[in-house]
Amino acid sequence: QGQFAPAIDRFLEVTTKFPTHDLVDDSLYYAAESARATAQHDRAFALASQFYKQFPQSPLTNRMALAIGQSLIALGRNDEAAKSLADLVARHPEPALAVPGQYYRAVALHAGGKLDESLAMLEALRADPSAGNKDAALAQIFADAQFLAGSCQFEKKDYAKAIDPLQKYLAARPSGDVAGHALSYLAVSLAAQ
Question: Where are the alpha helices (DSSP H) in the chain?
Answer without folding.
Answer: 4-17, 24-37, 41-54, 61-74, 78-91, 95-111, 115-123, 136-155, 159-172, 179-191
